[in-house]
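subagent[fold] <- orchestrator: predict structure for attached chain, return tokens only, no commentary.
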Amino acid sequence: MRPAIKISRLLGGCAVAAVALTITAAARADHHAGTHTAMTDKTAAAPLIPREDLFGNPTRSSGQLSPDGQWLSWLAPKDGVMNVWIAPANDPSTARPMTGSTDRPIRQYFWAGDSKSLMYIQDKGGDENFLLYGIDLATGKETTLTPFEKTRVQVVGTSFAKPDKMLVGVNNRDARFHDVHLLDLSTGELSLVMENNSFAGFLADDELNLRMALRPNASGGMDFFPISDGQVAAEPSDSTALADSLTTQPAGFTNDGKTLYWIDSRGRNTAALIAQDTATGEKRLIAENDKADIGGAMSDPKTGELEAYSFTYLTTEWTATDPDVKASLEFLDSKLDGEFGVQSRTKADDKWIVWNDPLTSPSKTYLYDRTAGTLNEFYTTRPELVGAPLQPMHTLEITSRDGLTLPSYLTLPPGSDSNADGVPDAPVPMVMLVHGGPWARDGFGFNSYHQWLANRGYAVMSVNFRGSTGFGKEFISAGDLEWGKKMHDDLIDATDWAVKQGITPEDKVAIMGGSYGGYATLAGLAFTPEEFACGVDIVGPSNLETLLKTIPPYWEPLIAQFHERMGNPNTPEGLAMLKERSPLYSADKITKPLLIGQGANDPRVNQAESDQIVAAMKEKGIPVTYVLYPDEGHGFAKPSNNIAFSAITENFLATCLGGRAEPIGDTVKESTAKIVEGADFVQGLEDALGG
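subagent[fold] -> orchestrator:
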């Protein structure tokens, strides 16, 4: 149940590394003599993948084993809404639903350490006030374990030593800080462990003793305070400044509490894996990589000792430190194509659930019996995609104008690349798909947006621009105070590279993304109005000043880092810079078509962020299409809403770039979408709304 090392991609893919794609001018010349963009006959003949197959409910997902190995669980639709199902491990055919959500899909759940109950978190309408719910396996009774309003729960610690209890953080007293409570899963009783008036987080051991408190400091970094017998030390034992704040963190204790693992970039560029003796304080280097931060780890469920670790530069590579785990990973590698990883393990570690991404066919999940040496298919996540023309993803290394290497990914339309080397036979329209965060990253593997847009006739490029995580602190810090400037220059440089390589014509590139990617879309159209043919902004901020004023209260402890990396609105210089970098104030420069999607309940990027720029564009008579979802937050959780916005988007892009599109049909009517502005700017949208 409880991984000892709690870091991103904890049980992520063990992959065969791909070779970075480098395209030369000579290769480009061999592909085509002209620069026409007519869709190839092969692309036009490829089956159109239905939106429902990519963005509707999966058949099954998130498979898990109960810690005792007696039960299988997964997420699957019940009356059209994703719910938790279970079945005996020895008889999966007798599955039954354990939850009864009728509106929003359940997206995250986990087992209690004693295998007697399941828990899940759920919010209301996308407000991100996640509460914790529990279901007793024996009776089927469901209980709201954190029965509070306007509260966001955090899981602080789970345990095999005390499998019927866990530590949770609850911010119902002060929305900025999470007080730590001990939750008795048998009775539902919450007991206060520590009132919190300044800390951003806590670390607990397997005995559910709080061992460390984390507090942001004035420099934008973090201070780490030891906790002994419930008392927080007066002085921190470790600290970071801004440069290491996103690449250094304690990652968890071994089950005996004698070793603390760290992800640590102090004194180096990329984050290494470090083991610290808690008695002596001595630290030992386990692994480091000169191109990528430590990305994932596997630890023994019984001891918490490290067994394997991974780094992800362009693709993910695992190294096992435990001989038995090494043998298991080698066995899986011999049986599975593409990427794979371990997503669930029993406490005895005799059975694993393994996900497999074959890259050009739908993902599958397997049951691996390590004792018997058998690997049996559990489910295919989206069986309707079997036989669909899914396209390979190419890895790229693009050089920015100032010499940074930008790890990137490219997917091409079906039939467009007869030599299968990542250069189309003739240039094709392209979508620059920008990730959110911005302190996040794009990765290798099946991507529903890449597959969807490529199927519609577009090259799709995703760029890890400066500020993206995973590539060392220097790469992150290169993005400090560069919103709308050098971070945006990286996207322009990648677009120009694609034009020079013959991947796309310069006048047929759209920019699209969510959250920061939405900001990048607005910035692209406002700051470089001739660069992109059109843009799709999903929950992107238009005004950085109001964005910082309206962040959720539980983000306030981290505000110093926002100010240091984005700009400080409390200084004249910082405020002036934030206004300069806000697309709202350059809305009058937008000349190309823009589509905006927004959730009315978004706690991160408030509805006002989209309202403001739409109003500014209307005032200047600039066309804009604005789609508002009254029951969504930061992104669209409900499949009907996601499908509706995808329908509008692909018809918007077809209007702008000339690609293929399924008709909108009844998708908008079947969603909660409100077309606030600009239905006439998207082909077929007015007709879809009428009648």
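orchestrator: received. Logging for downstream: The chain is about 20% helix and 30% strand. The radius of gyration is 25 Å.
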